[in-house]
UniProtKB/TrEMBL annotation:
Highest taxon listed in the record's lineage: Bacteria
SUPFAM superfamilies the UniProt entry points to: P-loop containing nucleoside triphosphate hydrolases (SSF52540)
UniProtKB keywords: Kinase, Transferase
Annotated InterPro entries: P-loop_NTPase, PRK/URK
Entry annotated with the keyword Transferase: yes
Membrane-spanning ranges: none
Domain Phosphoribulokinase/uridine kinase: 23-167
Record organism: Micromonospora krabiensis
Pfam families in the cross-refs: PRK
Lineage: Bacteria, Bacillati, Actinomycetota, Actinomycetes, Micromonosporales
Protein name, UniProt field: Uridine kinase
Keyword hit for Kinase: yes
Gene3D superfamilies: P-loop containing nucleotide triphosphate hydrolases
Length: 225
């Protein structure tokens, strides 16, 4: 069974004992988080919603208040965690019939119209994004997955993915070496996500991911809520 199949089986098992299952897919930039989360959502046999921490960015003036090459700023100032918790994750876990899955478009630099979606009584919400296992979020996840990718591979993928966004290869390199990769290093030193996640996957070879760690929540200890 491949990675997506194993994760789908695990999430399906969790959904049998818990009405709301919250899955976090964490990892550095360009790790393949969105791709994995989307593929998992496509194959699950229970109603599944998708969200991304990218939909809860802070406005640009807050994200870059420490400077455009601040690793500290990237790690600490990028996202509106009170909104993510209060409008999305918390209501979902509490059984709300609607949740907001995005509130800010960081590419356009503007608030989104409220994107409230209906949630059935029994559902899975898969959230992808960076820094999902930091202390204020880690206890939210019914199941957490961390995709490990080396800095060298991250930069290689960024050159392919982000050149149109940032304009030149040189600007991609400047931003990744000055902000994003050091921000991820700060996160790893402070949180050690590979020790926290239920599932750790070496995703350096995107077509041949390797499961490094596989632990599951105690199903018998989970309530239906």
């Amino acid at each position: 069974m491949d990675l997506v199949g194993r994760l789908a089986a695990a999430v399906t098992d969790l959904s049998r004992v818990r009405d709301r299952v919250l899955v976090g897919v964490d990892g550095p930039d360009a790790a393949g988080k969105t791709t994995l989360a989307d593929r998992l959502a496509e194959v699950l046999p229970v109603p599944t919603l998708r969200a991304s921490v990218d939909g809860f960015h802070q406005p640009r003036e807050l994200r870059y208040r420490r400077g455009d090459l601040s690793a500290e700023g990237y790690y600490r100032d990028s996202f509106d965690y009170p909104a993510l918790l209060g409008q999305c994750l918390g209501p979902f876990l509490e059984g709300a019939g609607q949740v907001q899955i995005a509130r800010y478009d960081h590419r356009a630099g503007a608030d989104r119209p409220v994107r409230a979606v209906d949630v059935p009584e029994r559902a899975v919400l898969i959230v992808d994004g960076v820094f999902l296992l930091r202390s204020r979020l880690r206890d939210q996840w019914t199941l957490s997955v961390y995709l490990s990718v080396s800095p060298r591979e991250t930069l290689r993928r960024a050159m392919v993915r982000d050149t149109d966004l940032f304009g030149t290869h040189e600007e991609v390199e400047r931003r990744y070496l000055g902000r994003y990769l050091p921000g991820q290093a700060l996160y790893r030193s402070e949180v050690d996500p590979e020790a926290v996640a239920h599932v750790v996957v070496d995703n350096d070879l995107v077509d041949a991911p390797t499961i490094v760690r596989w632990t599951m929540p105690d199903i018998e200890g989970l309530s239906r809520a």
